Amino acid sequence: MMNNNATRSRLIFEVKQCLLLAVPLAAAQLAQSATGFVDTVMMGWLGSQTIASGGLGAAIFIFFLLITTGIIVAVSPLVAEAYGAGKPERVGKIVQQGLGISLLLGIPITLLLWHGGALLLLLGQNATTALLAQTYLRAIAWGFIPGLGFAVLKSFLSALSQPQLVMVTVVLGTLLNITANYVLMFGKLGLPALGLAGIGWASTLSLWSMFIALTVYIFSQRRFAVYKIFHPSPNYSFNQHNRRIFWEIFQVGLPIGGLITVEAGLFTVATFLIGQLGTTALAAHQIALQTASMSFQIALGISLATTVRVGQLAGEQDLNGVRLAGYVGIALGALSMAVAGIIFWLVPELVVSLYLDIDNPNNQDVVALAVKLLAVAAIFQIVDGVQVTAAGALRGLKDTRIPMLIGIFAYWCVGLLTGYVLGIWSGYGAIGLWWGLAIGLASAATVLTWRFSILPSPRTDIHPY
Question: What is the DSSP string of 160-193?
Answer without folding.
Answer: TT--HHHHHHHHHHHHHHHHHHHHHHHT-TTPPP
